[in-house]
Amino acid sequence: MAEQLGGLADDRALLGRTSTAERVSDILRSRIAEGYFAPGTRLSEDSIGGALGVSRNTLREAFRLLTHERLLVHELNRGVFVRVLTVEDVEDIYRTRRLVECAVVRGLGEPPYPLEGPAEAVAEGQRAVREGDWKGLGTANIHFHRELVALAGSERTDELMRSVFAELRLAFHVVDDPHRLHEPYLARNQQILRALEAGDRSGAEKMLAVYLEDSLERVVEVYRRRVGEGEALA
After folding, report:
1. pTM of this prediction?
2. How far is CA 108 from CA 23, 103, 146, 151, in A?
């Protein structure tokens, strides 16, 4: 926990002079997504508030916002914890991803498309592979899909999927094998990108739909086993 709190202290500068619950929630959301606070971790008001230099009321409001996003859960007389997803949660996340991501690609209109964001995310994934940074590869994979969603040019869709992708990272942290989990999908990200570069949004949508089906099956298989193991150990 000391290492995590040290990282939060470094984030204090991001708050600026007018620290708000929204800014605090942005920081904590990012830290949760990056795995600094693993699923099941209890979040201490005193420690986190001290690290960020914010009031208890501000922190509680940030916790409330993140609880609404289903990243945290409040347990009576125990405190606030990073949420542990159920298998049903994971399935629902992928259902939402397919509805939104495929619809974005389907609705792109006529090419050419502004693909600088997805292209940079693919390049980020390639760099991570060269460096053997498998968690970095998982982050690059999320970035690719976030950039696909951004092609819709909708702030509301971006905000919706920001929360969905943060929840997805909770599942990835439990699976805890980023090399095997993410490496197969880098090449598929490239294929989707090439299809869009060629103006083939229909082909890209079909590849994306199969991609998400395969990813769901793979993640749920491992997740169900890991969650079951955790319950057995408890």
Report:
1. 0.83
2. 32, 9, 15, 7
Residues 99-129 have pLDDT tens digits of 999 999 999 999 999 999 999 999 999 999 9
Q: What percent of the chain is modeled with pLDDT above 70?
A: 88
Provide the token pair at 160: 């919706």
Q: What is the mean predicted confidence (pLDDT) over 62-87? A: 93
